[in-house]
Automatic annotation (TrEMBL):
This is DUF599 domain-containing protein. Keywords: Membrane, Transmembrane, Transmembrane helix. The chain crosses the membrane at residues 70-89, 110-132, 183-208.
């Protein structure tokens, strides 16, 4: 199978965009306010409040709601996977459709299968992330159930326990976020069916969109401002 240099370049740019942005965002989140950083602080505060509550039905309901959202994406991912796998038996028809679209590159039979394989890989990865996120939220439920009551909020061991609950919940949220990112990058991968240049542009656009939403969005500004008010509260637990 001969693959044009532009297709190889487009695929390399896609991988660099995905892996590079993931690594960049993880490092930058340690020193810059972003969705991941400020939400981690919110989770610490949330879990610290749980220790002092005798009735934790509300927390269970909130976590159940988060799990339902993730379960929706996990089941949807399986449906999408089934659809993509079905296309492997309809490659010729898919090539005919692609060839009929203006400004698209001439379809290559083997390359089309590679593109479908890329989509399969993306959604398999997304499914793993979503299901791991669900399991971790289940772990948080167990930890909340095991947490003893401390209305005074002075037990240092329970304060440390609350932080660890927040860490587990944070990891669950990260897995959910990685699954969502897979959906974003799958949109870029779809562009490869039409034109490798479009694939490159779409990959860079996804990176730009993710950066703006995670670091420069109005939600980040609002949550950061809210966090500053929490830090002034005597109930705030510093890391």
């Amino acid at each position: 199978m001969m693959i044009a240099w532009i297709d190889s370049l487009a695929f390399i740019v896609f991988l660099i965009a995905w892996i590079g942005y993931t690594s960049f965002a993880r490092r930058k989140a340690k020193t810059t306010n972003c969705i991941a950083r400020v939400m981690h602080q919110q989770r610490i505060m949330w879990m610290s409040q749980v220790i002092g509550k005798e009735n934790r039905v509300g927390e269970a309901a909130l976590l159940a709601n988060l799990e339902r959202n993730i379960a929706f994406f996990a089941s949807t991912t399986l449906l999408v996977l089934a659809g993509v796998l079905t296309l492997f038996s309809q490659v010729e028809k898919l090539e005919t459709v692609i060839a009929s679209i203006p400004f698209t590159a001439p379809p290559n039979h083997a390359l089309v299968q590679v593109k479908l394989g890329l989509l399969v890989g993306i959604f398999v990865l997304a499914f793993f992330q979503f299901t791991w996120s669900m399991r971790q939220y289940g772990f948080v439920n167990v930890m909340i159930g095991a947490a003893p009551l401390d209305k005074s909020g002075t037990d240092t061991n329970l304060i440390a326990y609350a932080k660890q609950m927040a860490v587990v919940q944070d990891q669950a949220a990260h897995s959910y976020n990685y699954g969502l990112r897979s959906y974003y990058y799958s949109m870029a991968a779809l562009c490869w069916f039409f034109n490798p240049w479009m694939f490159i542009v779409a990959s860079l656009f996804v990176v730009y969109t993710l950066y703006q939403r995670e670091f420069n969005s109005k939600a980040v500004v609002a949550i950061t401002a809210a966090q500053s008010h929490l830090e002034k509260s005597p109930l705030h637990i510093k890391e």
